[in-house]
Amino acid sequence: xxxxxxxxxxxxxxxxxxxxxxxxxxxxxxxxxxxxxxxxxxxxxxxxxxxxxxxxxxxxxxxxxxxxxxxxxxxxxxxxxxxxxxxxxxxxxxxxxxxxxxxxxxxxxxxxxxxxxxxxxxxxxxxxxxxxxxxxxxxxxxxxxxxxxxxxxxxxxxxxxxxxxxxxxxxxxxxxxxxxxxxxxxxxxxxxxxxxxxxxxxxxxxxxxxxxxxxxxxxxxxxxxxxxxxxxxxxxxxxxxxxxxxxxxxxxxxxxxxxxxxxxxxxxxxxxxxxxxxxxxxxxxxxxxxxxxxxxxxxxxxxxxxxxxxxxxxxxxxxxxxxxxxxxxxx
Length: 331
Ligand code: TYM
Description:
Number of domains: 2
Largest sheet: 3 strands, parallel
Radius of gyration: 21 Å
Structural class: mainly alpha
CATH class of the largest domain: Alpha Beta
CATH superfamily of the largest domain: HUPs
Bound molecules: ligand 1
CATH topology of the largest domain: Rossmann fold
Distance between the termini: 38 Å
Number of strands: 5
């Protein structure tokens, strides 16, 4: 069975963009692929984190994976730091990665601009850790949002380079970026993507927001000039709201457009808020219902399965490069 691998960072709060662009697709794809879903806490520390909050958010994100519908009976859920091979392979790939290609990464440029001082070497190295995540599992497909496209290209490049220099070791993965929802935009500024790190939280609907917050955020959502409610790329604010509506309800575009024909923006926003609240209610109940012991068991199982596969790939990579220790030399 072919494999998928994906992950999210346990920083800030998971939002509708994360769900519609990525997690939602994990849930469907898990039935067709052997699936690995990782909580990437080592990526999180590339920017400063409060240790207590990071530990809490790591477990919360595992609960969110389960509550959106990742089934631990068929998929592997694990925490990145539980599998030391991720950091180890990163070192190997660091020795193949080029400074110039990492300097070109737009996420690095954006994030380092925001931090201007004290940019960590870890932030620069972020894509190499991500490549290690993916390559350790001989991944076929990586379901992500549009903002990860460049990191995926880098992953493909470095896998190809390693295979060329040291022999066939890694499968070269393909990105899976959905046609609809790959880039959900901020409700307060439709020229920017919805983002956890956005200072303006009104633009970002969190999966754990209560109904009041959801209503408030949609009510304040900016709209375009004009009055028509139609999918139209020249009107990004309305198109973004309609895209969220489409994905949450599963209704076809024509049906949505005819439903809102002749109606005002306020009505669209209110309806969308209602749809979102109804979607979030059972999900949030699920999150609350996942006990600590149950979660520990799932994460322990995930850790064991992941370590086994990651261990094999890492050993092959070491051997291919001629890295041998005392215990493996039998001359
Ligand atoms: P993270 O935690 O920023 O986001 C998790 C997933 O959500 C997608 N996403 C969006 N999709 C649509 N619209 C948006 N506004 C939006 N914002 C975020 C992201 O594309 C992502 O798929 N680097 C990754 C985590 C990672 C990873 C990996 C992913 C680490 N190793 C290996 C895949 C494979 C990240 O920061 O995700």
